Structure formats: C-alpha cells, structure tokens
User: Which sequence fits this backbone?
C-alpha cells in the first residue's frame, strides 16, 4: 500500500512548526519569516529544475535558530522584543519593497 504523496510534506511541516513553537514568543515572527523564506526557496528550486534543499536541511537550520534564540534569551539574558532594539536595528529589520531606490 502506497502512502499519499503529500504525507511527507505534512509531516515535515509539522516538524518545522514544532521548532518554531519552541522559539521565544517575541522572536517567533522573525523565525516564521525565515522558515517561509526557506520553503519558498525550496519551491522555487523545484519549479526551476535545480536541486531543492531537503526537509532535513530546513529542519536543521530551524533547529539551530531555535537553539540560538534559546541561548540568547535564557543564558545570556538578552531582552527581546521591539522595545529592546535600537533605532538603527529597527530600521535594518524593516522590509524594503522590491524595486525601491537605495538611499
């Protein structure tokens, strides 16, 4: 009996989500954006016929990011959230629209 073709995709998405859920809440939006970037890159590689990154690679990157955020917030005592960012950091974290002129 063959498994449904999207079963592995669903399982991988579930594993990615569990890693994202383990990230401290103030940093989750950034990690979600990074995860979306990874998945979009994999999908783009599939469409163009190049070698897409595997589920294990994406999960390893999210695991490393989860561990790093945990280290920063618990062991280093770094504050998280918008109030802890300098004005320069806030500007560098804002998204720049595609095609926008550089300053």
Assistant:
């Amino acid at each position: 009996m063959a498994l449904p073709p999207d079963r592995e995709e669903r399982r991988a998405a579930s594993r990615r989500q569990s890693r994202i859920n383990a990230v401290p809440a103030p940093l989750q939006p950034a990690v979600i954006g990074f995860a979306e970037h990874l998945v979009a890159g994999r999908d783009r590689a599939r469409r163009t016929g190049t070698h897409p990154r595997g589920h294990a690679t994406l999960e390893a990157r999210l695991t490393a990011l989860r561990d790093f955020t945990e280290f920063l917030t618990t062991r280093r005592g770094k504050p998280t959230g918008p109030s802890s960012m300098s004005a320069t950091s806030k500007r560098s974290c804002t998204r720049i629209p595609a095609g926008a002129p550089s300053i």
About this structure: Residues 18 and 63 are 10 Å apart (CA to CA). The radius of gyration is 17 Å.
